[in-house]
TrEMBL record, chain A:
One of its GO terms (molecular function) is phosphorelay sensor kinase activity. This is histidine kinase. Residues 162-395 form the Histidine kinase domain. PANTHER family: BACTERIOPHYTOCHROME, TWO-COMPONENT HISTIDINE KINASE. One of its GO terms (cellular component) is membrane. InterPro entries: BphY/WalK/GraS-like, HATPase_C_sf, HATPase_dom, His_kinase_dom, HisK_dim/P_dom, HisK_dim/P_sf, PAC, PAS. The keyword Signal does not apply. Residues 92-144 form the PAC domain. Residues 34-76 form the PAS domain. Its EC number is 2.7.13.3. SUPFAM superfamilies: ATPase domain of HSP90 chaperone/DNA topoisomerase II/histidine kinase, Homodimeric domain of signal transducing histidine kinase, PYP-like sensor domain (PAS domain).
Length: 396, 147
C-alpha cells in the first residue's frame, strides 16, 4: 500500500519505520516467547506464545511478576545474579525452569535485554525466550543413563575383582593339592618298588603318605565345592542385574510376614523374639524385597549372640517421598572399621565362625539399587546391628 | 636369611597356608612359621609385646595375602610401612591376583616383593622355591636396630 500523497516526507519515513517495527514484532511473535516488564519486574506485556506455554491468559499475567512461574528449581542466588545483571544495564542470558498453571514444568532459554531512557534510568526489560523443554528432558535422560552406566561399570569392576581373587583362591588349592597327591604318589611308588625288592617299609611311612593324600583330597573337594558356591553366587548377582524389575506398590508388611513365616523354624530354634510394627507401603518389586528381607533376617539369625536370645525388630516410617524400614537385632554386631565392606561380593568378616560365601548382603545392595533404593548399616559390636532400607514411597 | 628369622604368614585360607608351608619346607626353609588368619590377628600380634621390633634377638619377615577378612593385606601393608617400629619389616605379598593396579599399589606402599599364587600344577612349588631363594638371600634387618 502506498502512503497518501498528502503526507509529508517525515511522516512517510515514520510510517515506514513503524511498519518495519510491526513486521519485526510479527515475525518475533511467531518464533519466540516474549514478555516485557517494567523496571520493578511487573509484567506489562506478554505475547500469545507466552500465554500458550505458561497456560495463563493475558489478564492473569499483566501486573504480576515472574514469581508466578517460579518452579523452586533455581536457588535464590540464581535470580539475584539475574537482577544484578539487568539492573547494571547488561543483557542476561540463561536457562530457566518455569512452572505452568497446571503445575507442570517447562524450560526456556532466556535473553533479557534492559532498556534505559535518555537519562540512563531503566524503562523496561524485554525478555525473549525459546522452549527447550524437550532438550532438557533429553539431557536429564542422558545424565541418568550416564550415571547408570557408571554404576554398572563400578559393579562390573567389583565382580571382576571378586572373580580374580575369590574364584582363583579355591583353584590354587585344587591345583596345589593335586600336585601334593602327585608327589605323595611318587613316594608311594618308591615304597612299592622297595617292597618289590623284598624290603619291608615302615608302617608309619605308609600311614603318613595316606594321611597326606586324604587331606589333599579333602582340600580338593572343599575347593571345588567352594568354587561351585561362588559361581552360584555370581550367577544370582548377574541375574539380579538382568531381571525385569517391577516398579509397583508393594505391601511390605505382607512381604515381611511371609519371609518370617518361611523362617519360622530357624527363628524358633534360635529362641528369637520377633517384633514387627505396622509397615508402610513402598514402591518396588515384591520378589526382590522378599530376597532383601530374607537375607537380612537370615543374617540376624546367623550372627546372633551366644550370650542372649535374639530379638529381631522390623519397623518402618514415611519421610517425604520415601519410606525407611529398619531391621534391628541384638546380635554380635560389626565394628565401625569393617562396616563399609560388608556389602562387597564374596566379602566375609568371620569365615571361620559361620557358614556362607559372602553373597547375601551383596544381593541386598544390588536388589535395592535396582529398585532405586539404598541400604545402610549401623552397628556396635556386642550390642547389635540395624540395617536401614530406603525406598520410594508408594502413591497408593 | 638367618635360621632365627621367624616367618610371619598372614593368610586366611587354610589350604594356601599349608601349601606354602609345605613348599617352603621342601626348598629347605625350616624357619619357624607363625600364621595369622586375617589382617586383624596380625595387627593385634604387632601391637603385643611379642610383635616385631620388641626384641633385639628376633628378626621377622612377613608373607602377606591381600584378600583377607576384617583388615585386608593392602591395609596391613600400609599400616606396617607407616609405623615407625615396623617400617623395616620385609613384606612379601603372596596373593591370587595379578591385577596391575594392585601390584603397582603394593609396590608404591613399599612391599619388598609381589608374588602371584600360581594356579597351574608344579608352578606352585616353582614359585615358592623362588620365594625360598629370595628369602635365603634376604638380609633381614633387626627391627630394633641391632643386627
Amino acid at each position: 500500500m502506498t502512503p497518501p500523497a498528502s503526507l509529508s516526507e517525515t511522516e512517510k519515513l515514520l510510517l515506514k519505520a513503524t511498519r518495519e517495527v510491526h513486521d519485526f514484532k510479527t515475525a518475533l511473535d511467531e518464533h519466540a516467547i516474549v514478555a516485557i516488564t517494567d523496571p520493578r519486574g511487573k509484567i506489562t506485556y506478554v505475547n500469545e506464545k507466552f500465554c500458550a506455554i505458561s497456560q495463563y491468559n493475558e489478564e492473569e499475567l499483566i501486573g504480576q511478576d515472574h514469581r508466578i512461574l517460579n518452579s523452586s528449581h533455581h536457588p535464590k542466588a540464581f535470580f539475584q545474579e539475574l537482577w544484578q545483571t539487568i539492573q547494571s544495564g547488561e543483557v542476561w542470558r540463561g536457562e530457566i525452569r518455569n512452572r505452568r498453571k497446571d503445575g507442570s514444568y517447562y524450560w526456556v532459554d532466556t535473553t533479557i535485554v534492559p532498556f534505559v531512557d535518555s537519562e540512563g534510568r531503566p524503562v523496561q526489560h524485554i525478555a525473549i525466550r525459546a522452549d527447550i523443554t524437550e532438550r532438557k528432558l533429553y539431557e536429564e535422560e542422558l545424565a541418568k543413563l550416564a550415571a547408570e552406566l557408571d554404576s554398572k561399570n563400578k559393579e562390573l569392576e567389583t565382580v571382576i575383582y571378586a572373580a580374580s581373587h575369590d574364584l582363583r583362591s579355591p583353584l590354587v588349592n585344587v591345583q596345589g593339592f593335586a600336585s601334593v597327591i602327585g608327589e605323595e604318589m611318587a613316594d608311594l611308588k618308591k615304597l612299592v618298588q622297595a617292597c618289590a625288592n623284598g624290603e619291608t617299609p615302615e608302617l608309619s611311612q605308609v600311614q603318613a603318605i595316606e594321611g597326606e593324600i586324604e587331606r589333599a583330597l579333602d582340600f580338593i573337594i572343599a575347593g571345588t565345592t567352594k568354587m561351585d558356591a561362588l559361581l552360584g553366587g555370581l550367577l544370582v548377582i548377574s541375574r539380579l542385574g538382568q531381571l525385569e524389575v517391577r516398579d509397583v506398590a508393594v505391601d511390605v508388611g505382607r512381604v515381611v510376614e511371609m519371609n518370617l513365616s518361611a523362617m519360622r523354624y530357624q527363628l524358633e530354634e534360635a529362641g528369637a523374639t520377633v517384633l514387627v510394627e505396622d509397615l508402610p507401603m513402598a514402591r518396588g518389586d515384591a520378589d526382590l524385597l522378599g530376597q532383601v528381607f530374607g537375607n537380612l533376617f537370615g543374617n540376624a539369625i546367623k550372627y546372633s549372640s551366644k550370650e542372649r536370645s535374639l530379638v529381631l525388630k522390623v519397623r518402618g516410617k514415611d519421610f517425604g517421598d520415601k519410606v525407611r524400614y529398619e531391621v534391628s537385632d541384638n546380635g554380635i554386631g560389626i565394628s565401625k572399621q569393617h562396616q563399609d565392606r560388608i556389602f562387597n561380593l564374596f566379602h566375609r568378616l568371620n569365615p571361620t565362625d559361620t557358614e556362607g560365601h559372602g553373597v547375601g548382603l551383596a544381593i541386598v545392595k544390588r536388589a535395592l539399587d535396582r529398585m532405586n533404593g539404598t541400604v545402610e548399616v549401623d552397628s556396635e559390636p556386642g550390642r547389635g546391628t540395624t540395617f536401614s532400607i530406603v525406598l520410594p514411597k508408594s502413591a497408593v | 636369611m638367618s635360621p632365627e628369622t621367624i616367618i610371619l604368614m598372614a593368610e586366611d585360607d587354610e589350604g594356601h597356608a599349608l601349601l606354602i608351608e609345605r613348599a617352603l619346607r621342601k626348598t629347605g626353609i625350616n624357619n619357624p612359621i607363625r600364621r595369622f588368619r586375617d589382617g586383624q590377628e596380625f595387627i593385634d600380634f604387632c601391637e603385643s609385646q611379642a610383635g616385631p621390633g620388641c626384641s633385639v634377638r628376633e628378626a621377622f619377615v612377613l608373607l602377606l595375602d591381600i584378600r583377607m577378612p576384617k583388615i585386608d593385606g593392602v591395609e596391613v601393608l600400609r599400616m606396617v610401612k607407616n609405623s615407625e617400629r615396623l617400617r623395616n619389616l620385609p613384606v612379601v605379598m603372596l596373593t591370587t591376583t595379578e591385577n596391575p593396579r594392585e601390584v603397582d599399589l603394593c609396590h608404591e606402599i613399599g612391599c619388598n616383593a609381589y608374588i602371584v599364587k600360581p594356579v597351574t600344577p608344579n608352578d606352585f612349588t616353582e614359585t615358592i622355591r623362588s620365594l625360598g631363594e629370595f628369602l635365603r638371600k634376604m638380609e633381614v634387618p633387626s627391627l630394633a636396630g641391632v643386627s
